[in-house]
Amino acid sequence: MSLRRLVLAVLACICPAAFPQDASTSLPTPGEILQQAEAAMGGRQALAKVTSISAMASCHGPKGHYETRLVSDRHGNLSFQQFFPDHRNIEGIHDGRGWSQNPDGTYEWIDATEVAVLRGHDFPMMAVDLARRFHDFKTIGRVQYEGQPAVQVDMIDDLGHPATIYFSSDSRLPLAVTVANLRAAAPPTITSRFDAWRSVDEVKLVNHVTILYGTDTFVFDFKVLTLNAADDHTFRVPEALMK
Question: What global pTM score does this model have?
Answer without folding.
Answer: 0.88
